[in-house]
Amino acid sequence: TGIMLTDRRYSSQVAFITGREADGKEDSNIDWEVLARFPGTLVFYMGIGALGRIAERLMACGRAGATPVALIANATLPTQRVVRAPLNEIVGACRAEKIEPPALIIIGAAAEGDSELDWFMKQPLFGRTIVTTRDTAGNAEFTRKILDRGGHPVAFSTIAIQPLTDGNEFLRILAHLGDYDWVIFTSPNGVRVFFEAMAALGKDARVFAANRLATLGVKTAAALAQYGIKADFVPTVFTGRELGRQLVAFANLNGKKVLSLRSELATNDLVEVLETGGAIVQDVPLYTAVPKTGDAEALRRQIEDGQIDWLTFASPSAARNFVDAIPPEAVNASRAKVASIGPVTSEQLNKLGVRVDLTAAEYTTDGLLDAIEAVERGDSS
Q1: CATH code, 308
Q2: How would you class 372 by CB atoms within 10 Å of its CB: exposed for 0-12, middle for 13-18, buried for 19 or more?
Q3: Do residues 364 and 248 share a domain?
Q4: How far apart are CA 176 and CA 285, in angstroms?
Q5: Where are the alpha helices (DSSP H) in 176-327?
Q6: Is residue 209 situated within a structural domain?
Q7: Based on the domain organization, do 166 and 284 belong to the same domain?
Q8: What is the Cα–Cα distance from 84 to 136, expressed in whole angstroms?
Q9: How many CA atoms within 13 Å lie on the side-chain side of 158?
Q10: Are residues 183 and 279 in the same domain?
Q11: What is the pLDDT of residue 8?
């Protein structure tokens, strides 16, 4: 808000007052005459319902009607709102803005604040409500990033990650891991599922002592780094087809054995490109994504009521499961914009009949938020 309660230009004192006294209390012990003469800043909390009475009491005891007032609703939250008006007009201003509790009431010259210090409401995505549609863990990570940029995240799980590492096929692959020249991970989920299985078996990163490792993108490489492993190859474009093309160009894969560890629902683009390049590919699904949706009716109402600014999709499976819960017509008829993490997800959304407003140039959640920020800034470049 840019408000400093004890800005020495205006005030060296501050008083905190409850705006609502205990129920059943017959006499108020608030000394309105003292507060009206108080030379510093007054801060009332729990006072939105008594705003009219507070203003009347202060003015009746001599406080000037022109005294600056700032009312801050949902302070420190992405939904924070600030209403400023003179003391004799603040009630009408708040009524016009439909302000509801919780809110702080700040009275005094310091309430005018300094716009240059208002960093909070100047954050890139401040005031934007953004829906995340990943699995529970992915939503938690994504919502933190949205909060860091000032946005208001709404987590709507569409999938649950189900490991496929209990079967004999995975154990056979693990027993012959040293036979592969390259091992490829295509997602952070794959890395997590693999190393959870290793921990259960009493093994660690040393299982890859004889292999070179490639990842589909920087986020997957970062997931590997958490286990002390540096990826030997990361493509510049984060799609399965591009990973295959660039890895074939980077390394001589003719006759080489490659192990692809990925989602059961992934496309065959990566495997096809690698095999065309002469590699002998073993494709092993580490996990699958099963449908799991949250309160679809509640989110649909928010979408239809215009309360959602952005719907984000980070995978084709999330798109499919979302549409199973909320029809494309509800999305397309709303003011909500649809943002996709990359072309593969955008293609899936289009096939499902969902209007895609934005496809990220960098196929990561950070890239997705960068693209949303650019649209919000009006940057068409």
Answers
A1: 3.40.50.10090
A2: buried
A3: no
A4: 16
A5: 188-200, 218-225, 240-250, 269-276, 296-304, 316-325
A6: yes
A7: yes
A8: 39
A9: 22
A10: yes
A11: 82
Q: Which tokens in the block code for residue 171? A: 């154990």
Contact (CB, 8 A) for 171 and 200: no
Q: How many helices (H) and strands (E) does the chain have?
A: 14, 15
pLDDT tens for each residue of 63-87:
999 999 999 999 988 889 999 999 9
Omega into 86 within 30° of 0, i.e. cis? no
The pLDDT assigned to 79 comes to 86
Residue 5 located in a structural domain: no
Helix, strand or coil, per DSSP, at residue 92:
helix
Cα 345 to Cα 133: distance, rounded to the nearest angstrom: 12
Residue 266: which pLDDT band, with cuts at 50, 70 and 90?
confident
Reported as a single tens digit per residue, the pLDDT across 313-370 is: 999 999 999 999 999 999 999 999 999 999 999 999 999 999 999 999 999 999 999 9
As given in the structure block, the two tokens for residue 132 are: 């995340």
Grouping H, G, I as helix, E, B as strand and the rest as coil, residue 64 is: coil
- Hey, which bits of 10-144 come out as E strands? 14-18, 41-45, 68-73, 81-86, 103-107, 129-132
Domain count for the chain, please give it.
3
Same domain, 239 and 214: yes
Q: How far apart are CA 25 and CA 23, in angstroms?
A: 6
Confidence at 196, pLDDT banded by 50, 70, 90: very high
Q: What pLDDT, on the 0 to 100 scale, is given for residue 76? A: 86
Which residue in this structure is represented by tokens 């938690």?
140
Q: How far apart are CA 91 and CA 345, in angstroms?
A: 48
**34 and 110 fall within a common domain:** yes
| CATH classification of the domain holding 32 | 3.30.950.10
Q: Domain limits at 327? A: 123-158+292-377
Rounded to an integer, the average pLDDT of 18-34 is: 78
